[in-house]
Each structure stands twice: as structure tokens, then as C-alpha cells.
Amino acid sequence: MSLLAIFSQELARIGGKPHPAESLEQAAAIYADICQEAASPALRVRWSTSLLETLDKEAVEITSRDRDEVIRLCAQAQIGLTEADFGIAETGSLVLESGPGRSRLASLLPPVHVAVLPLGRMVPSLQAFTERYAREENARHLQSMACLTFISGPSRTADIEMTLSIGVHGPQALHVILLKDA
Amino acid sequence: MKITSEDFGTQSSQALHDMQLQGALALVSGRFTQQRRTVVSQTDGWEEIRRKAEQIKEHTLDHLPDYLEQLEKQVQANGGTVYRAGDAAEACRQVLEICRRHQVRQVVKGKSMVSEEIGLNHYLEETRLEVLETDLGEFIIQLAQEPPFHIIVPAIHKTRQQIARLFQEKLGVPYTEDIAELTAIARRTLREKFLSAGLGISGVNFAVAETGGIVLVENEGNARLSTTAPRVHVALMGMEKVVPRVADLGTFLTLLPRSATGQRFSSYVSWIHGPRRDGDADGPERFYLIILDNGRSKILADREMRATLRCIRCGACLNHCPIYRHAGGYSYGWVYPGPIGSILTPQMVGLKKASPLPFASSLCGACADVCPVRIDIPQILLTLRHRIVRGNAKPLIPRVAEKAAMRGWRFATLHRRWRSLGIKAARPLQAMIARKGWLSKGPFPLSCWTQTRDFPAIAPKTFQEWWSTRRPPR
Question: What is the predicted pLDDT for the residue at A100?
Fold first, then answer.
């Protein structure tokens, strides 16, 4: 089974929605459908990367600005759009690095999180991912970012009578657009 | 938190008669053990991963002061501040001091067993700070003013009806038994608090000496919110939580979710390296790490007990323990329940205050079989029992009686003729009290046993008597 297939299967199993896209145009079409479904017109926020800019010019870029403003925007947004730095096939997980233009709240406060994962960034397993940091310079690079976040499916809890509820504090829906490399 | 471990006997017998509680315990342990079994069977090299984790933890404990120093340096290099706390009171004072320095009035908290251990909520609330638990289960028990019932699912002893009434009463919302709706109410209530709180407190699942990173594992997103939205983040860790390298996390993050809930991975795992960096849009401006000792150095120095410090607080030993599954979390009388509580509590609060706990086990060994870091809990229980007995905690008469009985047993096993005579003499005596092959009410000192369980009656014939009447087969 390909890494893409394993990732998609795992993500679906934990309640996320995988969307394979052959091209950027197809990714844009998929994204438009997700927005339509998630109540449009709605406030959308996104990371500031060139890939995401081509996907959604109108979404508000979350960059370094007034703290309360960042929180207000992310809290009001219906959709948060981010670009994953890695995907872990074995667990259907996204890995998001923090940094300038890469808001942590954008993947957390909006009820719908859409992430684009270029397929070249897929690693087979968690072990393979952490092995990267056996190299000293990778560990130093890791340390230079405030937060590395692993996201596996939507927010969930089973704290009441062991019954699963989705979207307790974080997003209720997680869409991953799996973008084939150009 | 008041320690009531001495009353394990009465507390557990109350729990045994609480049918609702028994139902909840069956549900949580049934679900978690089954899910764990499935996912472990699908994980290649599980035993090898456990051995590796054991090895890493043992190595870390061998060099603990060095790794803690490295961790401290790296946290500082990341722009964070480190405090060492010798005991619970000191850790509480440090948190309060940080709150005052940053003029904080509202605090949001992710789940942290260490904060329960040091009684942080109670301490901060007395200074009129508002402290809010944000994990759904912790939020519920905070409203009910109760301690956690289970390490992973703290409010599992409550029914949806009880939670509905609690929310109605404390939050002023309409009564609803719908679990999705109850969850949504908690989301709305807490969302406002996350965004207005000045300080967030979290625990630490793992701290990485190499990078000064702390790792948080969760499913709800409340730990992410508590550590991203407020201006200040304070992380609390027991000093045994450090691991040497980032590469070690592959091992521990494979073990923890599988052992705790039977998930391959938890919804959210955060590796946090200090406060936000220049140019970051969000994240806290200040980061503090409090490293707590609170008796851990003493455990570290005790060769027979040291393995206790390998624990990663997954809760698997609770779910698999036949005693926990019936006695429940509160019977153990302090923060840490189940088999891990039975070995940790006596070491942290003293043997005297927790003497029943090492005996609250059938020594079946299930806890050791499932422990992701291979702690030999039954062996540690036996050592603690030995120390308690040697420390002479029992009243005189049972002690003398027990010794005499053991001497008698030794004599009987060594002298066959006397043993046969003894058995022959006992049969007519037991006829008065035996029912269907069992003695359920014996005279003293047998009553010490029969108070709590039946004793098997001596059979009408011993095996040897029966054998001697058999003819050899042709």
C-alpha cells in the first residue's frame, strides 16, 4: 500500500477527511467545496505561505500583529487554512511547525481546519519522523521553533460515560488536501 | 488533599456496594483494555519497544542530575525560566509568585497529575485567583469539588444525569442529558475563559534534555489552548519526566497513547520550546518550567523502589487491575490510584499513612504485564509489605498467632505422619462448621481469614488415602 493510501485510511478511521488532489487546480476546487459546505460566506483565516495564497487570496492572513486581534480573528473564523510540514502515514497525522506567518491558533480555534499536505512531505512512521532528530543540526533547528504540533483527526473526548464526542475544544472537522507534487 | 489511604478497607467496601460505580468501572476498564489489546496486537515489536523504553528510563535515572541540568540550560537557551521546587508548598508558592508578577487574575489549566499532587487549585483559590480546569473530565469534577477518579478519564464515575444536574446548577444552563450538548456547553463556557485568561498551566508528559522541549499529549485541544492563548505559560513536571533526546520520543509516543486509551496516536501532541519567537503571530510571551522533587529524590536513592520513577502515567495498570476494577479510584485515598498508587503513595506520603495499599493486590501480575516501561509492580508491593511487617504495624495477638500458625505449617509440611494425624483430628472438628466443602465462619484465629473470605474445608479423603485404595490397573 502506498503512503498516500495508508495516510488516507488512517485519517478517515480517526474521523478526518482526506482529499487527494492531482493538481493545484483540483485542490482549489476541493477547497471551494469545503468552504461552501462549511457555511459561506464566512470569515476564513490562513497561514501566510505562497501555496495557500494561490488557494485562497481572500482569507485573512494571520501574521504578527496585536495579540488580541489575532485571537479575535481566529476565534471568529469559520475556517482555518494551514500547510502541513510533514505527514505521518502510519497514524494519519499532520505535523505543523510554528514560526512567522504560521499561527498556532489558526489550526485550533476555527471549527473547521483545512490543511494542505504536499505528498513529498510524507514519512512512513512516527519512529522514522523522530529519527530525523537523531542528527544534531535537526534537533537544533527544532529547538528554534516555539512549537511543533502533531494533529491526528478532529478534537475529541470520551470523558462523559466513555461516549465519543467530536469537537470539544478544537476543530469539529479536519480536512486534509493531499497534493500531488508538481 | 487529605490523605485517607489508611481507610482503604472501608472505602473499598463502600465502593463495592455502589452499583452505579461498579457499572462505570466495568465500562472504563472493559473499553480501555479491549482497545489496548487490539492496537498492541497490530504494533510490530511491541515487547522490544517496551524494553527500549525501560532501558532509556533506567539510563536517565542513572544520570538524572546531569539530564536535569541539561534540560534547565536548554530551556533557558529557548528563552524560558526554570524553577526547582523541593516540595509541594514551594511549587505552589512559585506558581503564585509568577501569577502576581504578571498581574494575573484568571488561570486556565490543562490536566496535570502533579498539580493534583501539590494541591495547586486549592492553594491558588485561597488567594482569590480564579483557576479553571479545562479538560472536560477535570472541569466536571472541579464543578463537583471532587478529586479525579481515574488518571485518564477523571469523571468517569459520574452519569450523564448527574453531570446534567451539575451543569444546570453551577452553570445555569437548561437540563440536558444529551452528551454532545453537554460537551458543547463546556466548549462555550471554557472558550471565553481561554481567551481572557492571563496565564495557562500545563503538566508535562515528557521533557527533552537535548532541546529543552516539553511534550504534551491530549485529545481535546485544551492543553494546546491553555499553552497558546494566554500571555504566560507555566509547565509543571515531576523531575522523573525528563528523557535525553528527541529521538527517544519515538519510543515513548508509541507506547503512551496505545497503553492509555488504545489509540495509535492522540489527537494532539505538542512539542513546546519556550515562549513565542520574534515574528510569531501567537503563543505565550513568557514560559516557566517548574521541576518538582517532592520526595522523588528519596525514591531515586532507594534501589528497591527506584523503578517506580519510570512511570509515564498511562493508567494501563489501573484498567487491568482486578482490585482497582472493583475498589475504584477513591478507595486509594490520595491522588494516584490503582497499582501505581499502591506503590507510589506509600513512598510519597509515608508507609504509616498508606499501610493498607501494598496489601490491596492479589499479586496477579497483570499490572507488570501491561506496564509500558516494565515496572515490576508486584515485586515492589512485596518489598513494601515486608517493610511494613518488619516495621511492626500489626497489633500483638494476630502477629503472635500468625507466627505460630506459620511455625505449625512448617512443622506439618516437614513431618508427614504428624500431618496425617492432624488432618484426621481436624475432620470431626470442622464437621460442625463446614458447609458444602467450605468454612465460612471459623473460630479465632481462623476467623481472621473467614471474616473476609471462605476457607476450603479439609476433603473427606486426602489424595494419598484415596490413592492407597486404588488397585493398580492391569
Answer: 94
Q: Among all residues of chain B, which has the CA nearest to that of A16?
A: B267
The mean pLDDT of A3-25, rounded to a whole number, is: 97
Per DSSP bridges, beta strands B206-208 and B213-218 are antiparallel
- Does a cis peptide bond (omega within 30 degrees of 0) precede residue B445? yes
Q: In what order do the strands lie in the sheet with B213-218?
A: A122-123, A86-88, A93-97, A147-151, B268-272, B213-218, B206-208, B242-243
Grid coordinates in use for B178?
444529551
Q: What is the mean pLDDT of the segment spanning B420-438? A: 84
Question: What is the full DSSP assignment across A82-150?
Answer: EE-SEEEGGGTEEEEE-BBTB-SGGGTSSSEEEEEEEGGGEES-HHHHHHGGGSHHHHHHHHTSSEEEE
In this structure, CATH architecture of domain B43-297: 3-Layer(aba) Sandwich (3.40)
Average of per-residue pLDDT across B396-420:
84
Give the Cα separation of B108 and B385 in Å (integer).
40
| Greatest mean pLDDT range, A34-38, A133-137, B161-165, B433-437 | B161-165
- The answer for A 117-156 residues in CB contact with B (under 8 A) is 126-127, 129-131, 133-134, 139-140, 142-156
Per the prediction, chain B carries an average pLDDT of 94
**Every domain of chain B and the residues it spans:** 43-297, 416-468
Q: What is the pTM of this model?
A: 0.91
**Between A91, A145, A150, which is nearest B273 by CB?**
A145
The 10 Å CB-count burial string (b at 16+, else e) for B48-75 is: ebbebbbebbeebbeebeebbebbbebb
Q: What does chain A come to in residues? A: 182
**What domains, with CATH codes, occur in chain A?**
3-155+171-179 (3.40.50.10420)
Evaluate the CA torsion angle B1, B7, B8, B13 in order and state its sign.
Answer: negative
Flag whether residue A44 sits within 8 Å of chain B, measured between CB atoms: no
Alpha-carbon gap, residue B69 to B67, rounded angstroms: 5
Rounded average pLDDT over B56-74? 98
pLDDT in tens, A31-90: 999 999 887 668 999 999 999 999 999 999 998 778 889 999 999 999 999 999 999 999
Where is average pLDDT lowest: B165-169, B367-371, B401-405?
B401-405
Assigned C-alpha cell, B276: 513565542
Q: Which chain B residues are closer than 8 Å to A158 by Cβ? A: 153, 261
DSSP string, B360-414: S-----HHHHH-TT---HHHHHHHHHHHHHHTT-S-HHHHHHHHHHHHHHHHHHH
Residue B316 host element (H or E): helix B316-320
> What residue has cell string 539510563?
B59
Residues of A in contact with B247 (CB under 8 A): 130-131, 133-134
